[in-house]
Amino acid sequence: MSVELPLWRAITGYRILTLVYTLCQVALSYRRYEHPLGAVAYMGALTVWMALTWRRTTSPERCTRQFLIVDLAFAVGGILLTSLVDSHARIMGGAPTLPSIWTAGAVLGFAIKGGWRWAAVASSVVAVANLVERQQLARDTLRNVVLVWVAGVAIGYVVEVARASERTLARALQIEAATRERERLARDIHDSVLQVLAMVQRRGTAIGGEAAELGRMAGEQEAALRTLVAGGLVRPAGAAAVAPYVPGPATGAHDAVGSAVAPARSVPPPAADGSCDVRALLAPFAGAGVTFSEPGAPVELPAAAAAELAAAVSAALDNVRVHAGDGAHAWILVEDEPHAVLVTVRDDGPGIPEGRLADAEREGRLGVALSIRGRLRDLGGTAAWVSVPGQGTEVELTVPKGAAPEGGRRGKSRS
């Protein structure tokens, strides 16, 4: 809802209430006017005007500049008409004008519609009309003029600030949505294209000959693509969606930890309520190089969230392969807590040096930044790293139950 809409509703209520107040005031002072019929005629015209146009101030689309000018003309006309229908003694004694406080509604309309500059102009017109009606600069007249002018300008300024804040918020939400989509695409690229290029580079270098040249070119393309992704140049709009990576069946230590890309495997069909057993997605990682521990009962998450969690575990195991070596052993532990699913990936490698994660993110290596931390953030969960040099690394992934990718809840990732 626009921040202006409550203001328009408020001014509509103000105009209606002040019209009732003004009608009562004129009715009580009817016998004191020199020409009471003139006062009644003006109030009748004002009432008809309000009855025909009260909906004009309920939204900015209906409240046009032409309407505001005519509305202000009714207020100014009533102020000037007061000197013709009321006695000079009553006017000099401080008697209110015919439109009385209803006049402020016309000024506030200008303030909400056009900001403080429009409000200043409308307030100045009302001030001149009051001075002409009193024919002197009395203290109470000056006070009323200043109050209307300050109130109109202040509300107009607040409206301008609110509009600027609303535009800034809308822009920030657009940037956030584009950034989240860019990160999602970057994760998919990291889990597929970059890993394939890295494997081609290593295999080509090992084989030699023409394959070595192919490996060199693959390495150059990998570096260029990492720079492209890290620089935020992946287009978030119009790109085809890529299914999240899901691990394939492992046949040994090399497949579980040492392979750059595991064969694709379809996600197990979700249950009737759309949930999926996390154990079924993580069990294929088990092998000679990976020990998998699970509860005896199903550990259920929404199917999309379970697939994203499995992809994050896959990225964590790939980090074990790259940084701990093919001889490292990894352990996967799944815990089913009352409000969240906790998956811990631990290895017996050399550990992560202090500051290495931040350096890797700056270098465009997105395994931690996007494939793990980004996925958990989008699920409303957390990713925490505990590493002691020489004693291995432990990655703790926590996903709240009921979470889904791009959901409303967002957790803060810890590193």
Automatic annotation (TrEMBL):
SMART domains, alphabetized: HATPase_c
Any one of the GO CC terms: membrane
Gene Ontology molecular-function annotations: phosphorelay sensor kinase activity; protein dimerization activity
Residue span(s) of domain Histidine kinase/HSP90-like ATPase: 304-403
Family matches, as Pfam families: DUF5931, HATPase_c, HisKA_3
Keywords: Kinase, Membrane, Transferase, Transmembrane, Transmembrane helix, Two-component regulatory system
Domain of life, per lineage: Bacteria
Entry's transmembrane regions: 12-30, 36-54, 66-85, 105-129, 141-159
InterPro entries: DUF5931, HATPase_C_sf, HATPase_dom, Sensor_HK_TwoCompSys, Sig_transdc_His_kin_sub3_dim/P
Gene3D superfamilies per UniProt: 1.20.5.1930, Histidine kinase-like ATPase, C-terminal domain
CDD domains on file: HATPase
The protein, known as: Histidine kinase
The organism of origin for this protein: Streptomyces lydicus
